[in-house]
Structures are given as structure tokens and as C-alpha cells.
Amino acid sequence: MRSIDKDIMSTGHSQQDSAPRTPEGALIYAVGDIHGQLHLLEALLARIASDAAGTPGAQRRMIVFIGDYVDRGPDSAGVISRLCGGFPSGFETHCLRGNHEAMLLEFLEQPETYAQWRMNGADATLYSYGVDTPPEDAPPGVIAACRDAFAAALPPAHLAFLNALPLTSSHGGYLFVHAGIRPGVALEDQQPEDLMWIRYDFLDCEDDFGMVVVHGHTPVLEPDVKPNRIGIDTGAWVHGRLTALRLFGAGQSLLSVEE
Q1: Is 205 a domain residue?
Q2: Residue 91 belongs to what domain range?
Q3: For residue range 112-150, what is the model confidence (pLDDT) as tens digits?
Q4: What strands, in cross-sheet order, belong to the sheet with 168-171?
Q5: I want to staple 211 with a disulfide (CB 3.0 to 4.6 A). Which of 74, 122, 175, 241 is the partner?
């Protein structure tokens, strides 16, 4: 496991006085899509704790998790347990809902949606909770039995955590959301489907959104830093790298861990 730190101020904004800022004294770490990679999460949290301890003037320390904690990787259950278990003293945490958490919750309510979740890595999540994955062509009764087994295996604290996840969080000049926002639509009118699923209509847009949007959802080899958005899903499950965007005042930098 190795750590990679990188300053990105010059990539996003050309002048310090035009850059977005965090609230006064707020040190914010936004963590990209985890997808069941508990070992990467633990390594990144240790790196964050060390960095925060060495940052003078940080009066408020925050971690914003951008969503997609489950599916694809081997230990979704462990990741949720870690997120439910609290963090070192002095850290304020905000965990957002990603499309994979939405698919999991939808399956619990409507097992007929299993096919979509299965295409997106449900097998890894089910196995992590000790539940066998039905084949793609399983009859409805088998899928319903799987839902029942999963509902029984899912700890109440995990279900409460998943149900309580908000879609957005904003701090200073930054808006944090899983996938992005629909251009031309006011924040209060954004649809949950867009906030969790949107891709190219948002990614290709060069509009000023009023705040810099920090998002995940679309995996990239290196964080995607634009004047109006910063994408931090560096493909933990496929590239073996988990990234945090570090924001303090007008400063922007990256902390990453990789296998």
C-alpha cells in the first residue's frame, strides 16, 4: 500500500482569489467511491487522520463520503460497519447516497429490481453478508427468498444508516453529490435520479454551477479537475486506488492510497 499526495490548485483555478473556499477554519476531506474496498478505506482514513493532525488552524474537521460504499469489492458489509462505527474524536462526517445504495434499498422493497442490481455488483454485497446470489434467470420466488435472506442478514444499524443517507451536502463554495447535477436546474429542483446517476450531460457541461461540484460515480485513472467540478472516483474496485480531495481555505490537494 502506498500514499500519493498532490496539489491541484493550478489545475482548477488560475488565481487564488477566484478559487472557491471552505468555511472559515474548516478542513474538508471528500472521499471517492469505496465499493467494498475496506482495506483501502482504512488506509485512507489513517492518512487523513495524520494529515489533519499536522494542519495548523483547522478548527473544524470534516469528512464527506461521496457514496457507493457497496457492490463490486469484497467487503461491503465491512465498509458499512466502518462507516456506522464512528470516527476519531474531532471529525464531523457526512455520508451521501450513491446509486449503488439506492439499488440495494430498492431491492429490499421491490425484489423484481434484482436484475439491475445484479448487473452492477450485487453478488459481492450479498456474499459479504453471507447470502447466496441467485442466477440471472432465477424465478421470482427464488429472488424473493434471496431478498428475505438479505433483509434478515442486514443488521438494523446498517439499514438505518442506508435509509438516512442524504443526496447532497454543501460547505462554503463546494457542493458534494454522488454523480453530479442537471445543468440549468436549480439545486432545490434537482431530481434524485440525476443526483445519483447523471453522467455526460453533467460531465461535458462547462457552465458555472454557482459552486464547484465535487462528485464520484464516473471512474477515472486520475481525479478529473475542472473549474466547475472535481471528480474523485479513482476506481477503488478496478484500479486499486481510493482518493480523498483535501480542501482548506482556497487550497485544493489530493490524498490517495493504492495497492
Answers
A1: yes
A2: 23-246
A3: 999 999 999 999 999 999 999 998 789 999 999 999 999
A4: 168-171, 174-177, 212-215, 229-231, 224-225
A5: 175
